[in-house]
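Margin note: ligand = dinuclear copper ion.
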Amino acid sequence: MGDKGSIWLPDAMSTFANEVDALFWFVFWTSTVLFIAVVAAKVYFMLRYKRTDETSVPEPVHESKLLEAAWIVVPTILVLFVFIWGFDVYLKMNTDPTDAYQISVMGKQWAWEFEYAEGVTAFSEMYVPVGRPVKLMMNSQDVLHSFFIPAFRVKMDVIPNRYTSLWFEATEPGEYQIFCTEYCGTTHSGMLAKVVAVSEEDFAAWIAEQSQDLPPEQLGEQLFAQCAACHAVDGSAKIGPALNGRFGTDRKLADGSTVTFDENYIRQSILDPASQVAEGYQPIMPAGYSSMSAKQIDGLVAYIKALQ
Amino acid sequence: MSHAEHHISSIKTLTIVFGGLVFLTVLTVLTAQLDLGAFNVPLALAIATTKAALVVVIFMALKWDNKVNTAIFGIGILFVIVFISFTLFDTLNRGDLTNTTKGTVQDQQIQAEKLQAQEPDASAIQFNRTPQ
Amino acid sequence: MSDSASSSINYLNNDKSIKSWLFTLDHKRIGIMYLIAVSLAFLAGGILALLVRVELMAPGETIMSADAYNQAFTLHAVLMIFTFIIPAVPAVMGNFVLPIQLGAKDVAFPRLNLASFYIYLLGACIALGALVVGRVDGGWTFYTPYSTSVGDGVLFITTGVFVMGFSSILTGLNFIVTVHKMRAPGLTWNRLPLFIWSIYATSIVQVLATPVIGITMLLLFLEKFLHIGIFDPALGGDPVLFQHFFWFYSHPAVYIMILPAFGIISDLMGTFSRHQVSGYKFVALSSVAIAFLGFLVWGHHMFVSGQSAVSSVIFSLITYLIGIPTGVKVINWVSTMYKGSVQLKTPMIYAISFLFTFSIGGFTGIMLGVLAIDIHLHDTYFVVAHFHYVMMGGNVIAALGGLHYWWPKMTGKMYNETLGKIAAALVFIGFNLTFFPQFIMGAQGMPRRYYDYLPEFQSYHLWSTYGSWVLGAGLFLILFYLIASLKSGKKAGLNPWGALTLEWTHTTTPPNPHNFEETPIVKRGAYDYHLAKELFASGGEVSEVVTSGK
Amino acid sequence: MANSHSNHPAHLQHHFVSSEQQFDAAKMGMWLFLVTEILLFSGMFVAYVVYRTWHPEVFLLSSELLNPFMGGLNTLVLLASSFTVALGIHYAQKDNKKGLVINLVLTFLFALTFLVVKYFEYTAKFEHGIFPGAAFDPHGVSHGVDYAMYNVPYAKQFFSIYFVMTGIHGFHVLVGMGLFTWITIRAVKGEFSSEYYTPVENCGLYWHLVDIIWIFLFPLLYLM
Ligand code: HEA
Ligand code: HEA
Ligand code: CUA
Ligand SMILES: [Cu+2]
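Resulting structure:
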């Protein structure tokens, strides 16, 4: 398993990806054959019956009812066949095995948050065990998002006020891209993450490691993954200001006042971003982070404070 | 054109139809007071449809009009039915596979609150006792 | 031959004042005014498209910020869809040609016709007002709750779309009545040009579907303004319901875009093969079949939206069925050339390119309709490529064919045939270069509406951008030589293509203000070339105009 | 119109061949327009049906707040106005100008009555904080009804739908009143006869449709 991709499709890394691909290739090649037939006939007629005599008026061709009927019946059969096949695979893709390992996914502008039953929370990297069905229970905090892993051929919209879910079973260890495919605002294209598929043992080890209490700074570093779409830590301005080397300096605000970039300012910026807008920036930092726990905020503050 | 003569509805016809419409209105109001269980809605809709049909056929004279106009009207109604029924296929069956939940998060919360109201648990009782 | 006095008076020169244009009730002049407005919209939308392409040449910021990009593609789509492609063929060529092809003096309701033009202008201006007011964000689909949470630009766009909807409805209504009630004596349904059949089918869709976008826009407006809670999940509303509302209009709307193109292609195939269009009845009725089936498939845009599987299955099944009547058309167009007499003038070159590009668009549409495959392809560049292949490669290429075909009739001038062919080639090559790579990167997983992307997609994006320049060059060349032809073009003959429909055989070039000297009496079908041999007996250009029954 | 022929009646536009053709065309156009109106309202009906099937108990509860007496009265008023329009057309066909004008005026007055009743209904709702959308906040007590009791989840949706539906319908009534004013003036001037009364007939068709919509709105909103 784990078929190599082609120019058309990325590597197929989930259990049903190959079935989707088989269907894709069937439709692809039938269409190609039909298409070439149409184009070939067109080009041939165009050249063969090119007008040479301006006065010629060709007689109408006697139309064959049989031929006309065949053009209707044959494609209909073809199309019904594809429909049934497509439906079958669709059912499989959308009915999760009952023994699936469950992960909660929260989509928010513009990051993914993964919550494991063991109490572990992760951003930007979703660890999953290989060879075991995984089910994602997904929900959005703000607007529509869509969760897409090309290598697994899965995609599902993530909706506020309703849970949607998808499942897959990774076939090989590796890192695979996660995209957000429902337009969700400014940094829609930055709402990325990775699936990290690892063996069962590695997965268990990872969970165990994550469950330990991290020192605040490290916790902050992990959490910062969801801020990275807008904040650089290398001094370059993105949608939001860079956050390194700022601690203790003066910060000019959009309303003209100046404050010190200290712990309180950072905390305030996270809990209520609109209250103190940095000069030269739009007040578009999401307010959703106010739901973070005190521990998480302390972690972030510690992390930002230490950034050089 | 064959139907150069326009149909003229007599005052008598119009009055009878009007009387029928009033009667049916009273009937809807009355039947709505009865408790017919699941039948209340279909009955009210059936009466409304009858009334609408009377207006269309006689007042709007579709009965004597060009058949094309009847077709136009019929197609319009048909597509309203398509719109409603195809949307209902979705909304009534939401969550038929495991890729979505049936209810919304809000519904689940309401449900949970209802259950809690029936059987107050320890924390709820305590809450009630806290002096406010 | 018509007498010389009437051939010198035509709809263009009978009254040259500005007022006579702005208040004209003449369907031909209204058609020309639409042509100008719609071309400007295309130009504006196209320039935005070129900017979008430049931005996508490289990952990260190239020429604009993320917000600017998001507004650029939204505005590109809104302009292209609502101000350009929906009115393009029906309101321009439908208006100009349809009454003449029917042998009528005008459309049934000329005042309504002028009103639709001004309503269209008003709607377009309101939509553009969004530019002044602020953010136009969210894509042309306006999915809630995003659309109700961003700036006021969306309010203007929705109002604009609402207003333009009326224009579209009135145009459709006008044409349906005109086709039913204003046909010349002898012009039975079986003799109608196929262009008329397809405009007729289009009009049905316009009348039935457009009101729903009206109410959708109104509800969206109220949702944003009053928070009525129908679509916004935060208030207990259902965002998927909004998608039903939106696509109940917008899927049928894609047939508003493509059916008129089908009509043009049928006419072009018949004329330039000088041959009866094969399977006339099938081609005619399949337009109506497509129009009706088109109402039953909207949910294929919602396979991963969380809608129920029951509806996904129904929508998927019916989606395939649309391929059948469309296939009937494609195959009949190809076989029209069989044993015909094919002349490769510029319009015919567009028709031939159309067969190529539209078929690719159609087949990829079928792929998207397959439930399991669409899960992977949905909202990737594969979809972007699909719809540009059907809209740009289908509608626009056909419309360019139609424009070249009727240009002599509209203006009385011939364009430069050599430049015409060069431009057609540029458009064809540029178009495929722009959009074919998008299929591949889409299947590889490149999501749409992405300002920034992973480096592995760059080579595809680069080719696509180069392609858009070739395409743009072709289109600007067309603009250039068409305008040049107005000044220096050769005078057009009465029937330069040897066509048999009434606008070529029974009126002057350009047509006289009331279309005909006398109401024509039709004695043969639109493509019965074998019954009109004498017209072609002398060879060369057909220059005879029949003033009464042929 | 350059080539109008002397034997053509005044109302015949130049691009039509006969009055018959013009009349048929106008009427067909009107029917098509009615269909667009039906589809416009269909969106509201879809919203209604969806939310009703999801939350039937909330809809039942909320509809208690609507006054079926007022709704019923308005139904009768609209039916009567449909009747007078039909009579008006009858008189037009019979060349009875007086009958026509009287009935048109009656229709206008019925329409006005409808809106006045609606006005009282709306203000009674507004007083108790029943608004469409975010402002929805039922409160206060009147006639022994405690409005605050009705502040349940999804009641907001019911009233949003109620206000949008009846609002759009009311707007159509208003447009109808404009149309009848125009038609009445023309009728008084004697522009209509059994030969030509297309505008009367088309306004009538429009008005009947407004009536039909209400025929459905009434039971759906007020009674169940
Ligand atoms: C002019 C406009 C136009 C046209 C004509 C079409 C035509 C079709 N479209 Fe397309 N479509 C769009 C415009 C159009 N579309 C747009 C704008 C979107 C995206 C909107 C957005 O999200 O922004 C879209 C998206 C879209 C989707 C949703 C994809 C997604 O978001 O996941 C789907 C899915 O089913 C689809 C299917 C089809 C099909 C089956 C046809 C069929 O009608 C095609 C039929 C034609 C053929 C099949 C070719 C010719 C046939 C033969 C030669 C005979 C043999 C054929 C067979 C046996 C199959 N389209
Ligand atoms: C009619 C519809 C239409 C047309 C014609 C086009 C034409 C083009 N489109 Fe667009 N496009 C859409 C409808 C259309 N598009 C829609 C609906 C979307 C989805 C938006 C969304 O996600 O919400 C989209 C999105 C879209 C994207 C994806 C953006 C994203 O997802 O991030 C891209 C990217 O390449 C693109 C590119 C182009 C290009 C290069 C052209 C070129 O073909 C343009 C070429 C045109 C010109 C260069 C102008 C030249 C014109 C003249 C000189 C006037 C001449 C006049 C006469 C000849 C009379 N379009
Ligand atoms: Cu989240 Cu796009
Ligand atoms: Cu579609």
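The longest strand of chain A covers residues 101-108.
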